[in-house]
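Write out the 3D structure for:
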Amino acid sequence: MSELAANTPLERAEALLRLTRRLTELLDAETACFDAKKPQDAIPMQTEKLQLANIYRRETMLAAKDSSRLAGVGDALKNELRSATETFEAAVRRNGAAVEAMKVLTEGVVKAIADAAARQKREEAGYGPGAQQSGRIGSMALNQSA
């Protein structure tokens, strides 16, 4: 499904309002998971979020191109839709900030692991009193006169 199931502008506006509110709920729930440092808890809602986001994007694009899709809708419903859209856009901004924070945190963890692995590898390499072997056969010198 790529469009709202609606036959009239009123049905379409009401469906778009429900869609916008549901997307806002999903984004707020996902943001809460990220803020709690539990991104795995957001996985179950991803399919629904992506499907609804695609419908939302398509519907808003079609409404922008063709004003008759929402023609004749009363002022009260238009105001509700406008308010829901503003709330949704704020949720998108909060979600974007949470995603960025998770990205920075994840990159920091990955860098720390890579740095630790590099340090460990340097400590294992070489010769001398502090050198350690990791079970690999290192260089050997042969005395052919023996």
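Residues 75-124 form the longest helix (50 residues).
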